[in-house]
Amino acid sequence: MSITTSTTEQLADEFDSPARLLTAEGVRVRHEILDEHVADLDLQQLADLYTDMVLVRRFDTEAFSLTRQGELALWPPLLGQEAAQVGSARALEDRDWSFGSYREHALPILRGVDIDRWLKVWKTTSNTAWDPHEHNIGLNQIIIGAQTLHAVGYAMGAQFKQDDSCSIAYFGDGATTEGDVSEAMVFASTYNAPVVFFCQNNGYAISEPTSVQAKHVLARRASGFDIPAYRVDGNDILAVLAATRLAMHRARTGHGPSFIEAVTYRMGPHTTTDDPSRYRENDEVESWKERDPLLRVERFLESEGFNVEQLRADAKTNADALAKQLRAGAIAIQPDPAEQMFDNVYSSPHARIERQRAEYKAFAASYEKAAS
Ligand SMILES: Cc1ncc(C[n+]2csc(CCOP(=O)(O)OP(=O)(O)O)c2C)c(N)n1
User: Which of 76, 165, 253, 350 could cross-link with 95 by S-S, CB 3.0 to 4.6 Å?
Assistant: First the structure.
């Protein structure tokens, strides 16, 4: 793939209609800036991205069902956001770090995080269960927007050590309203940090539509920090891949941070405890079904003569195997000792945590005493 370093211009003209390479009808359209960043991609590679999306979708829907069946405690579904997550994840190098919130389930699958470990968090048997350094994936972040600070901190450290790795921060439309995100962008901009701010604008922050949070498109916020912004169709995996490759390349070659707004839609509830029918119309959800990220790739591949039927069948076989593994893993998870929650709060012993640990032990012992 040839990438020039001069493509720092914003997709400013396109802010009102997100940049796209593949329409919902599956038609490949040209784009002056983005095209060159996916010029190397052949049909088989696009089919592989499709398979990734099928796997991720199946993982998500299976985990959702497991939650409904009482095998997991909570699940924030990504349904509808497969292209935004897979497209951006596939633009990263293994050495790059990702800092997500709680909805980014694609990257761990693509990077081979042990599924059982990932699920422990969602069965609430462990605060966290995977080693971030093993796969360069930060811990889930529930504090909205805080992970952007972590990503910038990491990027500044990498820059200081000159180790050529970059970071990407995933966050939602709602997070852009948080002070943490503004602070992260100030530091990223002033230190020229190699970081990509990847905003998945999925239309809602729980029940708050994006329109309540911003009077203009979110990508415009970045210019206030002097950070170039790209606004792409987040359901178009080609556009997402291209924009993220461009942004990562900028970061890696010393051009500093970028902001990507991937315009997508959360097809399901905020989490399994939410009922979206209370705050949005079914017509709106239906209108997004036609913009499905997988459907448009199938349509395009079909128009190119690719054997989509076979692709679908193979992807399903892989997805079935993943779902089976996921189900068995979720059911088998046993709780970690509760006391473990005190272990990783600080890197060294801390008086307040030790006091809490002692309180917890006394509390647990009182039950044992009552039972005997
Ligand atoms: C600092 C903080 N404030 C509020 C919350 C409660 N909260 C949890 S999810 C959420 C909405 C976040 O929306 P968005 O950033 O758009 O991400 P999405 O859930 O749509 O992926 C809020 C307000 C929180 N977790 N942290």
Answer: 165
147 lines ligand 1 (CB under 6 A): no
Cα distance between residue 93 and residue 196, in whole Å: 13
Q: Is there a domain that residue 2 lies in?
A: no
* Separation of CA 172 and ligand 1 centre (Å): 8
Separation of CA 79 and ligand 1 centre (Å)? 17
- Same domain? 61 vs 84: yes
pLDDT tens digit string along 193-248? 999 999 999 999 999 999 998 888 999 999 999 999 999 999 999 999 999 999 99
Query: Locate tokens 């359209």: which residue?
Result: 29
With respect to residue 260, please indicate whether it lies within any of the assigned structural domains.
Answer: yes
Tens of pLDDT along 34-75? Answer: 999 999 999 999 999 999 999 999 999 999 999 999 999 999
Instruction: Examine the domain organization and report whether 332 and 350 are in the same domain.
Output: no
